[in-house]
Design a protein that fits this description.
Strand order of the largest sheet: 1-3-2-4-5-6
Number of helices: 4
Shape: globular
Radius of gyration: 13 Å
Oligomer: single chain
Largest sheet: 6 strands, mixed
Length: 133
């Protein structure tokens, strides 16, 4: 696993996390993605601008879904609001990535509800949508 720290202006305890499967990042759009570096580049840009702390995992065991990401609550949201991780599939491209970024910028899991633009992409994990990463 590799981790890329967010470097924005929020204190570390207020920055949500984002775990992405490094093996399936980019699967949804494939070679049709116009962005050099594809979906992984979009996710790295979120970390660089301070939206989330990005962790790349070799596999999240949801291979058939493609472009699996897990939004993790910030430490503050986990402690004060009981925030739980939210799993997503096929979150790829500029529009969905920006919807994800907006939600994470607003606080993400435990702080703000999943936006309508992303609800269709939520993965229910074994009856526990908040299953740990």
């Amino acid at each position: 696993m590799t981790s890329e720290r967010a470097c924005g202006t929020r204190p570390p305890g207020a920055v949500p996390g984002l775990t992405a499967c490094s093996l399936c990042a980019g699967e949804t759009l494939g070679s049709g993605d116009a962005l050099d570096g594809g979906q992984l580049a979009r996710l790295r840009a979120l970390a660089a601008r301070g939206t989330a702390q990005l962790t790349l995992a070799e596999c999240l065991d949801e291979c058939e879904r493609g472009d699996v990401v897990v939004a993790r609550p910030s430490g503050d949201a986990r402690r004060t609001a009981g925030g739980r991780p939210v799993w997503f599939e096929r979150v790829a491209g500029d529009e969905l990535t920006e919807a994800l970024a907006g939600w994470l910028d607003a606080g993400g899991p435990g702080v703000d509800p999943v936006p309508d633009a992303l609800t269709a992409y939520v993965i229910e994990r074994g009856g526990d949508p908040g299953a740990e990463v």
